[in-house]
Each structure stands twice: as structure tokens, then as C-alpha cells.
Amino acid sequence: MARRREEAAELRAIPITGIGEVRPGDSVAETIIAALRRQKLNLVAGDILVITHKIVSKAEARIVALDQVQPSPASRRWAAHYQLDARLVQLALEQARRVVRRKRGIIITETAHGFVCANSGVDASNVDGGRCAVLLPTDPDRSARQIRRAIRKRLGISVPVLITDSFGRPWREGLCEVAIGVAGMNPFRDFRRRRDPHGFRLRVSLEAVADELACMAGLASGKLTRSPACIIRGFTYELGRDGASSIIRPRKRDLFR
Amino acid sequence: MARRREEAAELRAIPITGIGEVRPGDSVAETIIAALRRQKLNLVAGDILVITHKIVSKAEARIVALDQVQPSPASRRWAAHYQLDARLVQLALEQARRVVRRKRGIIITETAHGFVCANSGVDASNVDGGRCAVLLPTDPDRSARQIRRAIRKRLGISVPVLITDSFGRPWREGLCEVAIGVAGMNPFRDFRRRRDPHGFRLRVSLEAVADELACMAGLASGKLTRSPACIIRGFTYELGRDGASSIIRPRKRDLFR
Predict the structure, then answer these.
(1) Are both B29 and B149 inside the same structural domain?
(2) Last residue of some domain: B134, B164, B188?
(3) Which one of A18, A185, B10, B214 has the largest count of C-beta atoms within 10 Å of its C-beta?
């Protein structure tokens, strides 16, 4: 009964506001803790901290000044044909382990991490008044673990940390947030061994809760406001050691790679 | 500034509990209104009502008794090879407009609606003590509009209605909720013409908020509890007339069909 009550409980997403520009070398944990203080908001047991990857990438200096990028002739040709920035095309290809599709100006790659997404997750941005590209963190699961540890050390509280990005999907228009880094919780909720209220075994029921939590945070954050992080409160997560890398379907089990 | 304050507001997902078994001919709107009464929960302006498709399908009699299904020899062979229920395989193929992939016991189809998903969304369930299959609603956008109208008529309040299902994804393990029916709101949040806090145009920024809201509701509902619907409160949606069919990427623009 305890579990049922918990599962029917209210969920909340509380945006963390007032996070300023994050610079290489900054501590993401300290930045968030300072913002929470200003907002008079406390992290409590059971909370989940969700952070958009951009501030993590910036803190980890995963930034490239676009005027330092030398696009190859092939990148130039492709970019010119589709009116893209050849330097961003170049970076997308450099960050890729493999090109999955390349058509009509869209480049879908498999990144070094194994994520399949557009442009290897490379994003144009503005840093210190110059035009830059922000790359994905080198190891977003490690980044999530580090932020989790730093928060535990400073606040004495253990909360799961998710790092997110916006990915497109085949077959459906629009982007949705996904978890690219996970620490401190099971990225899945597994109903496969349980039974529904009729006593039947549930058919397919591995739920990617980390991605659903990322979506929920995306709704709360907004892209125009400076709210690159939020707290999700009220979700009964399972403990676990697997990171977001466990969400990546192995290529041999994938029907679309 | 008004918009910024709104976007940084807290979001809540409130499960609607105590919804009993829904039978063919039942009114989904009345069932939900009765459950809200018992729960002493009011729908208020700005709320979004999210409903898992299963109760909508049952109300619309989109149920097939499995012992009435005659699998074709091909369905039997395929099912036997992968230890599946041949009747479910048969229904999945009958509900498909096209098979997108069929491999290792997994059937990915394009449904009559255009959704690309496993088994055409056909789900095994238990209805009145018999083993049944639940099909997707014939026109989930129309179902959403009907429920929205019925609620407006009875409660005098207009709320967007989303109908959801759990879909798998290429490249990533686990299921996430998606919106298969939408009424009363724009399924997307479009940042393409806006500028980020630095004044730069945002690159790719069509956000599939209807799918993200579906995910948020999925987290709140739980699959083991009887909470097939929830209220999302605090999300600033845009009005719009497009349904979930507008989320389906046209085949000619799709790189994976």
C-alpha cells in the first residue's frame, strides 16, 4: 500500500532561477547551490536535480570558438549546399563516431558516447560576446556523479542528478528532452516482473523514467528564461548505479542503425 | 516579463485516482468528473487533462476478445518462432497501414493514423474476466475533442485534453509516453522566431510539449495503480487547433521510414 500511495502522489517541477552565465572552471554544484540560496529554496530528501547540459558543458570548457574551426572542403561543400555554417558541420562530424543519416541538410550521427542525435549535439551559442559552439560533456554520467558528490559534500544530502539535452526523434516532429547523464537513480522503472491490477503480467513495461523526468524538467525550464536547472519533487525513484549510457540501445539490438 | 514569470513557475502533475473499470459505452468525461468529485479535486482554468488511451479505447469499444481472432498461417509461423501470441500478431498486422520493421520478434508498424510504434499499439488486457486486446482509438484527436467538449458542457470550463500511449524509440531503451490525441492546445512550443537571452536566434527549437506533457503525466500515473488520468497544472500552453496528427512527421520528410 505504501508504494501505491507514493505512486499516486503529486509531482512537482520547481525551476531554479537566477543562474547567471557559467564559465569554464566554474563549479556547477556551487552555482546551483548559490541560486537555491537566493531563491530560498531547499533541496530535500527525495528531490531529483535536473540540469540542462549547456551549463555543464560550459563549466567543463567544452566550448569551441567558431573562428578557430577550419572546415574541410567536404564540410564547406555540404554546408554551402544547404546554407549551413560549415564550421558547425565540421564540429558535428568531428564529434561523431559514425554518421547514421546525412540528407537534406540534416546530419544524424552517433556520438562518441553512443547517443544518436542531430549534429552530434553540437550547439551554437554566445560566450563572452563571441560566437561559439558548445559540445556535449565528454562523459555526462561522470559529470552527473561529480555534481551529485559535490552537493552531498556541501549540503549533506544525496539527490539523483540528471543532465539533459533536447533530441529530435524519427517519425515525430519536434524535440523532447532526454537524459544524457544520470547519477544516483535507476534510469528505468521496470514493471516486467510485476502484475497489473488484474494479476496479469505486464507486457512491455520498461519505462525510461530518466527521459520522462528530463521532459518534465524541459517543460518547467523554458528556453528563453535563465532556468537551466530544476528540482523534481514527489517522484519515487529507485536507487541504481547505472548511468544514462544504459539507456543507449546496443547497436546489435537496434533496428534503425 | 509576464511571460518570463510564467515560464519559471512551478509545474504540478496531480493524479486522478479511483477511476474504476471503464466499459464500452461509458463516458470518459463523466467517469473523470465523478472521480474528481470523490477526490475533492477541481479542474481550474489553465489545467491540462491527460488521459491514458486505454480507458478511452475501452469506452469506445476498441476491444477484441482474443478467442475471436483467427490468425493467418503467416502470423502463426512468426508467432511460434518468437513465442508470441499469434492472435496479437494478427491484430497488430491488421491495424497496420505498413510494416516498418519486422525482426527478431519485434514488429514496428505505421498505424492507420500514421503513428509508428510497436505492434500497431495493440495491447493485451483483461476485460470482464476474459483475455482481450485493446486497440488504439480510431481517431484519438476526435476522442480528445469530444472529451474536452463534454467537460466544458458539464463543468463550464475549457481545458486542453491529451490522450497518451507508451511508445518505444529507436536508439534508446525503454518506453516513454507520447500524445496520440490532442485538443485545445498547440502540441508544440515554437521558439524558432524568438531570440535567446543574448539576442541570437535559437537554432532548432520546435519543442514537442504535448509529448513532454505526456511523459510528465506518465511519471505521475504509475502503471500499477488505478490512475489512468492526471491534471497538469501551471504549464503556460498556447492555444491551437492542431491535433496530435500534426506531430506525425510526413513520410517524405522522414529519414527513418
Answers:
(1) yes
(2) B134
(3) B214
CA–CA min distance B150, chain A (Å): 25
Number of domains in chain B: 2
- Residues making up chain B, counted from first to last: 257
Q: Within this chain, do residues A77 and A109 fall inside the same structural domain, yes or no?
A: yes
| Residues of chain B with C-beta less than 8 angstroms from the C-beta of A106 | 255
pTM, whole model, 2 decimals? 0.94
| Chain B CB contacts of A101 below 8 Å | 255-256
Look up residue A152 and give its three cell numbers. Answer: 552531498
Q: What is the pLDDT of residues B110-127, one digit of tens each?
A: 999 999 999 999 988 777
Question: Of A106, A124, A198, which is closest to B255 when you measure between CB atoms?
Answer: A106
User: Do A179 and A150 sit in the same domain of this protein?
Assistant: yes
Q: Determine whether the interchain pair B246/A173 forms a contact, defined as Cβ–Cβ distance below 8 Å.
A: yes
Q: What is the CATH number of the domain that holds A101?
A: 3.90.1660.10
Compute φ and ψ for A89, nearest 5 degrees: -60, -45
CA pair distance B21, A211, nearest whole angstrom: 30
What pLDDT, in 10s, does the model give residues B144-196? 999 999 999 999 999 999 999 999 999 999 999 999 999 999 999 987 655 55
Tell me, yes or no, if B99 comes closer than 8 A to chain A by beta carbon: no
Of B125, B171, B196, the CB nearest to A256: B171
Is the CB of B4 inside 8 Å of chain A's CB atoms?
yes
CA dist list (Å): B191 to A65, A157, B116, B132, B234: 24, 36, 26, 44, 19
Cell of residue A134, nine digits:
558548445
Q: Is residue B19 part of a domain?
A: yes
Edge-to-edge strand order for the sheet containing A63-65? A63-65, A130-134, A123-127
